[in-house]
Design brief:
This protein is α/β, with parallel strands linked by helices. The chain has a single domain, classed as Rossmann fold. The protein has 7 helices and 6 strands, in the order βαβααββααβαβα. Strands 3-2-1-4-5-6 form a 6-stranded parallel beta sheet, with helices on both faces. It is globular.
Length: 187
């Protein structure tokens, strides 16, 4: 059976990370892009039609408004749900148990089914409210990954910065991303 990864893109800055993840993750990917995620990708990546540009990298694309999509039900098992980038608004909804969009409903399903949920937070500074919400989610087993590219391998381009962080996310969904995320001394 193939590995099934849902990918949510919200309205926080950082669409370049989502695009790199979608391109490099070899697993079956099921994509959800929020209304504001589309707007930010359009601005940051210059995509006239973000969904058309991202569709080739996903097995299936769902509208964030489609609460009848299979991802909204615990009977459709996921190996992981990666929200990249995760806006603080989305984090607040997930922490409060709100499932008013497909992204937040899929996160709620992951929590209740004890499936892997990875939140890649792209915001700074973080409010005390968001920090508490992230701590609560972490205590529930959520993997919280602030988008903070590693520098220890001395990246020389923006692409290398992006890949350094995405390699860490790939590792958490079972993809050996190579030496950019681990020490060669361990080999």
């Amino acid at each position: 059976m193939s590995t099934r990864i849902a990918v949510g893109i919200t309205g926080s800055s950082g669409g370049i990370y989502a695009l790199d993840f979608l391109k490099r993750c070899p697993h079956d990917k099921f994509l959800i892009v929020s209304k504001w995620g589309k707007a930010v990708i359009k601005d940051e990546l210059g995509f006239a039609d973000p969904i058309a540009e991202l569709t080739p990298y996903a097995k299936r694309v769902y509208a964030d408004s489609d609460l009848t999509a299979p991802l909204a039900s615990g009977t459709n098992r996921l190996d992981a749900f990666v929200i990249l980038p995760a806006s603080t608004s989305t984090i607040g909804k997930i922490a409060s148990g709100l499932g008013d969009t497909l992204i937040t409903r899929t996160a709620a399903v992951c929590l209740k089914e004890r499936q892997k949920l990875i939140l890649c937070v792209r915001e700074t500074p973080l409010s005390t409210v968001t920090l508490r919400q992230l701590a609560d989610l972490s205590a529930m087993g959520v993997i919280v990954m602030p988008i903070s590219p590693p520098l220890y391998f001395v990246p020389k381009t923006v692409e290398e910065y992006v890949q350094g962080f995405v390699n860490k996310v790939l590792h958490h969904v079972g993809v050996d991303a190579g030496p950019a995320w681990r020490s060669e001394e361990m080999e």
